[in-house]
Design a protein that fits this description.
The protein is of the alpha/beta class. It contains eight helices and six strands; from the N terminus they run αβαβαβαβαβααβα. The protein folds into two domains: 94 residues, Type I PLP-dependent aspartate aminotransferase-like (Major domain) (Aspartate Aminotransferase, domain 2); 124 residues, Alpha-Beta Complex (Aspartate Aminotransferase, domain 1). The protein has a four-stranded parallel β-sheet with strand order 2-1-3-4, with helices on both faces. One of its GO terms (molecular function) is pyridoxal phosphate binding.
Length: 235
């Protein structure tokens, strides 16, 4: 198994080289980009969307195990926002069922940039109030390609209002996954993935760039903390 971030075309080639083709199923996450699902379609396979782990935002091994059928040929876990998927559990599932497991989404970066982002993330973790900061599974390293928090309250309306208020205070932020892949027109599936859909409604990516100054980080903290108290009072 080559566990590395790959462009979608290389992921398609890996599926082809693994013998995945028409009539097969490929288990993919819905929370994130459509690259994995698109690659499955390009080789003639059917993407099967499963739910994510609510803490890591990566594909849930339990959901993968429950979705395996006689037609399943591969699993494509995505390393999301810089948090690695639970590859040991997924590889065990793959070995048990004879499935190819192809990790996707890891990015090779200069060590200095990763260390500075991790330091910025640690500062935000320690200072932010009123939002739920990222969780990291034991024994893995989060590189914080994105610093994604959950905004408490009533889901999408409160999250979007929170984002608008932050931007008005000069804090750049964005919704990392506005629509889960299984809810897009191209890949529409009539199924419920509760953790995925909740994350799409609650999550917001805050700036954590390696080049940020302490003053810029303090601005993020001040803006978020002022708004967080208000959101808690109306939730």
């Amino acid at each position: 198994m080559r566990d590395m971030g790959t462009p979608a075309d290389e992921l398609r080639r890996e599926l082809t080289e693994s013998g995945v083709g028409p009539g097969d199923e490929v288990i993919v996450p819905s929370y994130g980009t459509p690259d994995a699902a698109e690659a499955a379609l390009l080789v003639g396979a059917r993407p099967v969307f499963v739910d994510m782990d609510a803490d890591t935002f990566c594909i849930s091994p339990a959901a993968v195990a429950a979705a395996v059928t006689s037609r399943t040929a591969a699993v494509v876990p995505v390393h999301t926002f810089g948090h690695p998927a639970d590859m040991p559990s997924l590889l065990e599932i793959g070995a048990r069922h004879g499935l190819r497991v192809i990790g996707y989404g890891g990015v090779e970066e200069p060590a200095g940039e990763t260390i500075r982002r991790q330091a910025n993330a640690a500062y935000l973790d320690g200072k932010l109030r009123g939002v739920l900061t990222p969780r990291v599974a034991l024994g893995v390293e989060h590189t914080y390609q994105q610093y994604v928090v959950r905004v408490p309250g009533n889901g999408r309306p409160d999250r979007d209002a929170f984002a608008r208020a932050l931007r008005s205070r000069g804090v750049a932020c964005h919704v990392p996954v506005p629509t889960p892949v299984h809810r897009t027109q191209r890949f529409w599936r009539d199924l419920r993935l509760p953790a995925t859909e909740r994350a799409a409604d609650e999550c917001l990516a805050l700036p954590v760039d390696a080049g940020m100054s302490r003053r810029e980080l303090q601005r993020v903290v001040s803006a978020c903390n002022a708004l967080g108290g208000l959101l808690r009072s109306v939730a």
